[in-house]
Amino acid sequence: MQSKCRELGVLAFDLDGVLVKHPSSWRYLHEKFGSIRIIQERNDSEMFREGVITYSEWMERDLKALLQVRNNKLTREEIVEAFKECELEDHVDELVHYVKSLGIIVAIVSGGIDILANMVAERLGIELVFANKLLFNEQGYLIPRGIEVVNPLRKDTVLKKISKITSVPLSKFMFVGDSDWDSSAFKVVGYPVLYLRESEVTLTGISNIYVVRNMYELKEVINKLCSI
Amino acid sequence: MKLSTYTITRVVKEKGGKYVSIEVGTDKYCTINNARITGDFFAFPPEVIDEIEKYLKGRRVTRSLIETIMSLINSAVLLGVSREKFQSLLINVLEEVSKACKVNAEN
C-alpha cells in the first residue's frame, strides 16, 4: 500500500522510553533479575560513549551481570515472562493503527533487546524490527554473548538500511526518540521528533526537531505534515 | 579550522508539564546563524520571542548580547515557565554553543 501522506513514508520508533514507558529494556531486566547493583557500580555507558569498550563488549558485560546473579541459569521463557509486565506507552496502539491506515511503514529501531522489541511489534502489528539479539544455548539458557544489530550511537546506519529496503528516501522518514542516544537518527531523517519524557534533554547538531509529550501530540504533528 | 557549524538544542519540561525548547546554532566564525525558541509557554507580548530570535542572529555571544537579551526577557510576562528558568536556560545554551565553537576553532 502506498503512503497516503506525500511527506511521510516511514515512521521509525525508538523502543525504550517511546513505545514502552521504561527507559531501558536492559535496565529493566537488571531490575527484574537483581543485577542492577552490579551495573550501577560500573560506568559502562560512559566507557562505551568514550570508545573504551565496543557495543558488543557492553552487551557482554550486561549479560554476564545478569548470569552472575542467576548462577548462569536464565531462560528465554523467564525473560519473556519478565517483559510481559513492561508497560506500553499510553495510546500507542491507536497511533500505530492510525499511521498504518495512512499507508505509512512503521519500524522499530532500538538499541534495546530483540525479545521485547518483537513482543511489542507483534502486539502493535509492526513488521520492521531492528534490535539487539540475545542468544541461548541448546538447553535454552542465556549465554553471555549477543548479536549487535543496532549500535545505539549508530541508528542512522539502520535507518539507511530501511531506506534501501523500502525505497523510501530518508527525507520522508520520521524518527521518534527520547534522548541524545538517538542523535545519529535525528540527524539523517527528514522529520526528527523528540518524545519528551525526561525533564531535560540536550542535543547537539540537530536542527528543527519536533517536540511531543504524548501520542496525541505525535498524531497532531503527523496530521500537520500530511495536511489532514 | 574545521568548516562545520554548531547547533545545541536544549528542551526542558517544567513541573506543570509545559516545555521550552531552545535551539542555537553558529557558523564557523562563532556567529549565531540560527535561533529558535519554541514550546507551549506563553509570552506577553508574544512578539518578544521573535525579537529575541532576530536579535541573536548575526551576532556573537558576548556579555553585552546577553545583557540585551536579558532586558528583552525582563520586559515580557511569561506564563508556563518562570522568567529565571527561561533566562538561565537561554544563557546556558548561548554559552555552551559559543564555547563549543571556540574550542573547535582553536583546534
Descriptive account of the structure:
With 228 residues, chain A is an alpha/beta fold. Chain A has a domain at 10-21 and 88-225: HAD superfamily/HAD-like (Rossmann fold, 3-Layer(aba) Sandwich), CATH 3.40.50. In chain A, 41% of the residues lie in helices and 20% in strands. Chain A contains ten helices and eight strands. Chain A has a seven-stranded mixed sheet with strand order 4-3-2-1-5-6-8, with helices on both faces. The longest helix of chain A is centred in the first third of the chain and has 15 residues, at 55-69. Chain B is an alpha+beta fold and 107 residues long. Chain B has one domain (6-106): Enolase-like, domain 1. Chain B has three helices and five strands. Chain B has helices spanning 47-56, 63-74, 83-106, and strands spanning 6-13, 19-26, 32-39, 42-44, 77-79. Chain B is globular and about 40 Å long. The relative contact order of chain B is 0.22. The model of chain B has no long low-confidence stretch (mean pLDDT 89). At the A-B interface, strand 7 of A face strand 1, strand 2 and strand 3 of B. Strand 7 of chain A pairs antiparallel with strand 1 (6-13) of chain B.
Tell me the layout of helices and strands:
The complex is a heterodimer of chains A (228) and B (107).
Chain A: E1 10-13, H1 25-33, H2 36-40, H3 44-49, H4 55-69, H5 76-83, H6 92-101, E2 105-113, H7 114-124, E3 128-136, E4 142-147, H8 155-166, E5 173-177, H9 183-188, E6 191-195, E7 200-204, E8 210-212, H10 215-225
Parallel strand pairs in A: 1-2, 1-5, 2-3, 5-6, 6-8
Antiparallel strand pairs in A: 3-4
Helix pairs in contact in A: 1-4
Chain B: E1 6-13, E2 19-26, E3 32-39, E4 42-44, H1 47-56, H2 63-74, E5 77-79, H3 83-106
Antiparallel strand pairs in B: 1-2, 2-3, 4-5
Helix pairs in contact in B: 1-2, 2-3
